[in-house]
Structures are given as structure tokens and as C-alpha cells.
Amino acid sequence: MKPLIGITANVDFDWKHTLGNDYLQAVIQAGGIPIILPAGVIGDAAHLAKKLDGLVLSGGGDIDPTLFGDEPHQKLGSISPGRDHYEIELIQHMLKLDKPILAICRGIQILNIAVEGDMYQDIYSQIDSPVIQHTQNAVRYHLSHYVQVEKNSLLAEIAGQVQFKVNSFHHQAVRKVVQPFEVVARSSDGVIEAIESKLHKFVVGVQWHPEPLAVHGDPISQRIFQRFIQFSI
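RESULT FIELD:
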């Protein structure tokens, strides 16, 4: 039986839902059945979590900073409060059930916030030391910069190496990481690029976008989706 994989959709001001096709194709390619999840079904997340075999938290807009005790920064972009609250509730139920989660870009940030971590609203103005380009001016499957991965991490095991290149499309990033998560990858400027739970069978968050890379043949990205699907069966 192929696992049912819920993928959260982005939501705009008019509640228009959008999701890049690469998310769907990466899940299909790895052996799962993708299901697009609409935002705003708060209260039904517990029931939904029981039905899903795995969850992909997709990328998208910015996150409401009041969820982690901050005031809005001048560089904060568009937010979707309904999506934020829905995803946090869904994440918490998936964690309780120990079901696999793959959190991508915005997803790694909301994953960390769901367990009371926090984040930078804008890395370029909130990090004092020099920051490399994290919003690349290239196609989505271009490998933009390197990440350094902890050697004893699940991510390093999947990749088969402790340094590799990724793409990059973000101006926000995880800041304080709390249990059950640990930082397992950073870019050369120190920005957190991946976290993992040590208490769950597969809960991995990455700051980059492995879905277009997987679809375009990047072997590490393909293995990330394959391992996620294997844990979802």
C-alpha cells in the first residue's frame, strides 16, 4: 500500500490556495500518494493526523511573529495567520502520533515554532555578522551554496556525506531550537539549515527546497523523499 502524504498549501489574503507541482511529483516519484491540505480546518487536525501516513510542510509566505513573542519587524513580509494556527495544530498531533514529517523552508520554521522555538523575521537585518545570499537569483533546481551536516545525524546518513550544496529561497530562518529538535546542518555563515527530532522516527526540517532538486534528478534530494516515504509506510 502506498502511503497517503498530506502536503500543506500556501494561502493568500483571499484564501486562494497554491502549491508547486514539484511537491506532488517528488512525493509520487518516491512512492507516496500526495494529498493537498487546505488551511483553515482548525479543530479537525486530530482527525486528519490519524488518517495521514506522513506530512510535508511546504514553503510559502512569512510567519506571524506574535506566535513566538516578537513584534512585527520592518522586513516582515505577507503572513497567513489561519495557515499558521492550522499547521501548528496539525504538527502537534502528528508529533504525538509519531508520524513522519518532512518540513521544507517555511515548514522548518513553523515546525520549530510548534514546539515553542523561535525564528529570525529577517536574517539580513537581524544577524549582525555577514550573511551569504539566501535568496538565489537562479532557477529553483540550481545548487546555490553549501551546508555542513552533523556526522551522526539522520540527514548525514541519508546524504552519505557531511557537506553538500543546496538551493536557497528564504529571508527568514530558525533561531532558537528547542527539544525534541536538534540543529543538524548550517550554512557557512552559521544560519541553521536543518533540524531533526531525536525522539521521533522521522521528523526532519530543511531550510532549502529539495522538491525541485529531487524532480530534476539530484540524488540527495531524492533520497530525502525516499527515506521519508519509507518511514510513512
